[in-house]
Amino acid sequence: MGGADAGAYVRVENVWKSYGAGTPVIKNLNLSVAKGEFLTLLGPSGSGKTTTLMMLAGFEQVSGGAIVLGGRDISSVPPYRRGIGVVFQSYALFPHMTVAENLAYPLTTRGLGRAEIRERVAAALQMIRMSDFASRYPAKLSGGQQQRVAVARAMIFRPGLILMDEPLGALDRQLREEMQREIKDLHDLTGATIVYVTHDQSEALSMSDRIAVFNKGRIEQIGSPQEVYRNPATPFVASFIGETNWLAGTVVSAGEGELKARLSSGEEVLCRSKDGLKAGDEVKIAVRPENIVFDRAPEPASCLKTKTLDLTYLGLCTRIRLARENAGELLAVVSQQVPGGYAKEAAEVWFSRDAAIPFAADAT
Amino acid sequence: MPSSAQAADGPDAMAGYSRPGVRRLWNWRVLLYVVCALICVFLIVPVLVIFPLSFNASEYFSFPIKSYSLRWYAEFFGDPKWQAALWKSLQIGVLSTIVSTFLGTAASLGMRRLSGPLRAGVLAVFLAPLVVPLVVSAVGLFYVFARLHLVGTVTGIVIAHSILAIPFVVITVTAALSKFDPVLERAGLSLGAGPVRVFFTVTLPAIRAGVVSGAIFAFVTSWDEVVAVIFIATAQQFTIPRLMWSGVRENISPTLLAAAVVITAVSLCLMLCAALIRRSDGGAER
Amino acid sequence: MTSGVADFGHVPPLPGGQSRRWTDYLPSGMTLLLLPPVLFVLLFFVGPILLMLSRSVYDPEIVDALPRSVIAIGKWDRTGLPDATVKRALVEDLQAAPADAVGRAARRLNSFRPGFNSLLTKTKQSIDDAPEAAAGQAVQLEEIDPRWTDASYWAALANNTSSLTDAYLLAAIDKKRNTQGEIVSVESSQRIYWSIIGRTLMISLVTTIICLVLAFPLAYGIVAAGPRLKLTLLAFVLLPFWTSLLVRSVAWVVLLQREGLVTATVRIFDPDFAGLALVHNRAGVYIAMVHTLLPFAVLPLYAVMGNIPRSLAQASFSLGARPARTFFRVYLPQAAPGLYASGLLVFISAIGYYITPALVGGGQDQLLSYYIATFVNATVNWGMAAALSIVLILLIVVLLLAFYPLMRRSGRAL
Ligand SMILES: Nc1ncnc2c1ncn2[C@@H]1O[C@H](COP(=O)(O)OP(=O)(O)O)[C@@H](O)[C@H]1O
Ligand SMILES: [Mg+2]
Q: Is A81 on the interface with C (CB under 8 A)?
């Protein structure tokens, strides 16, 4: 977070947005995207992702701040002069034009010659492997095919920046994963800068160079998928991305790179240090389910006494619901074959110090 | 169609719905369609009856018809009075279609951004000619046209017919716009086309079926209209319906029925086209 | 996928750069496009109708022709005859006003006091011809025509001293102002408008009821039919719907007249049949009006009924309700919005009917529109035409206000 990087390709600087006289839906947004980067805006529905994207595209005016593209302030440039490609969630293919006509549209508006347009449309069709569908109308295409045409149409005029608003939201799971890979391939191939919106965290984790996590019109954290997953900056990020167990307690001592906390159940646990937390502070500690293990974790580690409630076998892994003594439930996910021993009534579980992330109890 | 197998707990829970119940429903169905058939006969006979009568060789509407001939059509197409009326009707119909299609389409497009009571109010103004009795509209126009020297002019009748036709254009185009996804316009803008280009390459083609069927309704409205013409036209501006109107009040000649067949055939063909256009357009979407 | 294919090559940047074109200033959503159609409708529909309706209360013809008289007679106490100043004012007015203006005022006054037309025109004639006028001597009105000694003529003038008048609106509901200026009913022999209003409502109501009774089974039949039959039945509804109202009315005249097809058909079975005239009477009006309006009743009903899920009736049956109960308790409430919509549409259309009753009906079967048309075409009485138009529009507004919420409410309740 903080100020936008001056050398970036796209810079969103101190942008505010409110619709009419209402409360702002985007509050002081700062964001920079490097050339060729794949940035994902991730957040719950209503957090302002679409609004941000529409301001980048030029369909919504910023209420304050500036949007800079390639060193030029485009905040008041109309959308058709920005030269930014947009893939809409509903694809927005023109129903009265064939696939080829849809693809030719942005080239026609730029006044290219007939022969050149034909050539480029053919190349684009070949790239999305739809050469046989050139004269079909969109209504006669499957969802995946429409999606590919929409992506190709947004890329065919070689925009420096391409915006995608939940482009895979309408597809079923299997097709979605296939299309994720294709979009990534296209990104690698063309070197375009892509800002991608989704509320699906697994999509964000698998596709992005960096993820910006949105909540209530603000960015909670920007970082690589590993960063936002392993080092969530706020409890919101920790809860929103992946699953998290929350342990409530009080800081006992704050040492070098380490905090010791006493949980409300009386057990003492070790966790990472965090600026601003000192002895006596109320904390909540996030522990990912896959970091809860039944063998003794590598030191330094902490131990909790639990009872096994039930196991859900999911093939790739097994989810185990555990009950702590007088202190709620825990979720553990183990990927190995579950040994018979896990199914016993009482269990001691461990997690290492670095897997436990403390936050002030009143942080969100 | 009582399918009650699961619902019936006890053996006698649905006693009334064994075979006799089904039989009774079936009888109701026969009765229903007999009634429907009678109503349909009532609906269609007056439309159909003019066709054979207009081909009747005899001057009297005698039934059964003994011999058929085209003499009344020859009379219709040969009589300069009917010819002039035919051209007047066509001229007025085409002009009012152009005027009302432009204005009605502009109205629908202009209302897109409006919402709430404002939109309802504006829409009510455009649809009002459907609710206000024809005679009141015609008399109002006559009152003002008399002062504007528009009585007895083609302009006057075209204005009147445009007013009566605008509601139909507004209805069909607004319906087409309500099915139109405005994201398509954003897509056009994002691909580098300016607002004007987007309108002509994206919006207009998408609502084309609505505009065309609105235009057809507009033409048929003018083509059939007689009340406004009664007030605003003079003897030089007699349209076919106006000639028929004065003809019926004297005595109904077979030539008049030939004219009725001609205007009915034109109306029915056009309305059928409009229905087919809407149907094929609805089909293309899915 | 090779990188060679993927490379789209150079595409020129968009023209225009930072500078703006006029299209950049187009208002979003093109709301400005409303301007021409709104102006057109205001100028050629709303405006003319309001102007015409204003003639029901605004009547300048008497004041324009006789400006001095209407001021002078304002001081008259309506007992006995007006004094000499009033008569002098009238003579001056008649000397000054052109003959056609006096004629218009005379016709207008005649509608309040029959005989006034001839009285005033004759007086004007005499004054113009009389040598005294040129000599500036006093004109004796009573000598020109003894009717000037009849106070009822003066009362008619006294009742119309303003350009604003309620006389037409009162006349439209069979009221008038008496010589004292009080509102009273007109003599029973001249009470016609209430009965015309009542007849208009009655014919519309009966037509609506018959239409609904016929439309319900037909709409139900269309909904319940298979695809082929459905299309056929719809064609039977749409073909007449698409046929010109005038043509259908003419067809009914042909069918119903004394030597028409109905008679001819009966003669096939009974050669001695004398012939039955169904035209120029009430029966013919009902038949033709029901026929022309039935599609308006069927189509909204069909739309609503088509959306009633079959599962509701099935659920009702499965819960043990018999067909009659299912119909009245489950189906009919669901169809109610359609019945209201159809009924409203038919009634509002019927109430303004002109062509069909004029062709098929007799003198006693005409609706309000006919009288409006007659006042404009035959007697050129804009005041009465406007007043009856107001009555007609009021009836429609009241109906809309009464039934539209009902329709919406029952539609929402679903
Ligand atoms: N056109 C609009 N007018 C008013 N409020 C809007 C409009 N579009 C979005 N909003 C509001 O702005 C907030 C952010 O919306 P959006 O950007 O669509 O969120 P997201 O795409 O993350 O789901 C929401 O609270 C939404 O209700
Ligand atoms: Mg969104």
A: yes
State pLDDT tens for residues A11-65.
Answer: 999 999 998 788 899 999 999 999 999 999 999 999 999 999 999 999 888 888 9
Under 8 Å CB-to-CB from C243, ≥6 apart: which residues? B47, B264, B267, B268
Beta bridge partners of C301: none
- What pTM does this model have? 0.83
Q: Return the structure tokens found at A286.
A: 């996030």
Return the domain boundaries, chain C.
61-153, 194-410
Q: CB–CB of A58/A117 below 8 Å?
A: no
**Nearest residue (CA) to ligand 1, atom 26:** A46
Q: A10-238 maps to which CATH number? A: 3.40.50.300
Nearest CA in chain B to C46: B125
Residue C399 near residue C408, CB atoms below 8 Å: no
Residue A43 CA, closest ligand 1 atom number: 22
Query: What CATH number is given for A245-360 in this structure?
Result: 2.40.50.140
> Environment class of residue B245 by beta-carbon count within 10 Å: exposed (0-12), middle (13-18) or buried (19+)?
buried
Q: Tell me, what's the pLDDT at B210?
A: 92
Sequence-separated (6 or more) residues with CB below 8 Å from residue A185: C1
Domain range annotation of chain B = 4-48, 73-285
In whole angstroms, how far apart are CA A38 and each of A50, A204, A219, C258, C329? 17, 10, 17, 86, 61
Q: Which tokens hold the place of A97?
A: 């034009």
Spacing, Cα B194 to ligand 1 middle (Å): 25
Length of chain C in residues, anyone? 414
| CB of C237 less than 8 A from some CB of B | yes
d(C-alpha B144, C-alpha C41), whole Å: 14
Residue with the bigger pLDDT between C106 and A340: it is: C106
Count of residues for chain B? 286
Asked whether residue B216 carries a pLDDT value surpassing 90, the answer given is yes
DSSP character at residue C314 = H
Provide CATH code, domain B73-285: 1.10.3720.10
How far is C196 from C99, CA to CA, in rounded Å?
A: 35
Q: Which of A11-20, A314-323, C156-165 holds the top average pLDDT?
A: A11-20
**Spatial contact of A270 and A300, defined as CB atoms under 8 Å apart:** yes
Q: Which residues pair with residue A270 across a beta bridge?
A: A260
Bin A319: left if φ > 0, else alpha if -120 < ψ < 50, else beta: beta
Shortest Cα distance, chain A CAs vs residue C1, angstroms: 6
Percent of chain A with pLDDT over 90: 51
Structure tokens, C218: 């037909």
Q: Are strands A258-263 and A245-255 parallel, antiparallel or unpaired?
A: antiparallel
Q: Is B28 exposed, middle or buried (0-12, 13-18, 19+ CB in 10 A)?
A: exposed
Candidates B189, B202, B205; nearest CB to A79: B189
Q: If DSSP codes are grouped into helix, strand and coil, which group holds residue A251?
A: strand
CB C368 within 8 A of CB C391: yes
CA A61 to chain centroid, in Å, comes to 25
Confidence bin at C413 (pLDDT 50/70/90): very low
Mean pLDDT of all residues belonging to chain A: 88
pLDDT of residue C379: 78
d(CA B129, CA B133): 8
Q: What is the ipTM of this complex?
A: 0.86
Ligand 1 atom closest to A217 (CA): 14
Topology, domain C194-410: MetI-like fold (1.10.3720)
C232 Cβ contact partners less than 8 Å away, ≥ 6 residues apart: none
Distance CA C98, CA C155 (A): 24
Q: Which of A98, A23, A104 is nearest to A63 (CA)?
A: A23
* DSSP letter, residue A353: G
The pLDDT of residue B17 is 43
Q: Within chain B, how many helices (H) and strands (E) appear?
A: 13, 0
